[in-house]
Write a structure and sequence with these properties.
single chain; 291 residues; 4 strands; globular
Amino acid sequence: MYVQNRLKELRHNAELPLFGVMIGISSLILLFLLTRSGSLFKTPDYGFYPGSNPLMESILTFIGLMTGIVGIVYAVARLILSYYMLYAQTISGAVLVTPTNFPEIYQKSVEYAQLLQLKWRPEVYIMQQNGVLNAFSAWMLKKRYVVLNAELVDIAYMENKDFSSVYFVMAHEYGHHYFNHTALWRNLVILYAESIFPVSMAFSRACEYSCDRVAQVLTHQSGVEAMMALTAGRHLYKYVKIEDYLNNLLNRNRTDELVFRWIYNFISSHPIMPYRVMALLDPRGGSGKLL
């Protein structure tokens, strides 16, 4: 119960308001598309005859609406198909974490699912990604899963024997499942708003901050070393001095550097790493900077 109460407090304060904005934008776009489709095939009145044929108007309006609906169904079907194709790619090219294969990670996956009271325990897969240190979470009908890049898992089993950083990244991905960031219904209600770049990217950054807080609660660690592994790589991250790292990135006075760093953060789906590290180190546990 303590974990549940803590997690409710730690969701980024802009996430739900931005989600509401996304739903509103998506609804307006959907309404526009349906209205536009309904009027697309209407018979124009050029003034050569007194009024349009009401029956023909109704038929053409119906055809227009059906065209719009078919387009919406196609967009939804394409989204669902992309989910299943991603899963097919994962199970075809990754190793499933089990009590036999990578038992330490498996045990943590069970523990985190229990602490978060998830209905379905997300499966964990390890996949080679040509040197990229990353992870992601995804949805399937009555199934959730997390993919950890093999290059990230290396830090647990190779030179540094650092399971804690891997656990933090995995706990972050479990946070996406806890907050239903990967759920189909959530992505459907904001489907058309995803193209509104500034809002969708800000919403994505807020979600990332929320999941970092989940990881902190589950792992009882700051998560800074995990962030440094993603930044400096699996061999060098242990040598990074965090205070010096932040000072050199944040204490800059050149206007052009500040402006373009702001722009880069503005168009990114994840907060830039200095902002993310500052949020993780914030003793108040506040929401991180979106802009």
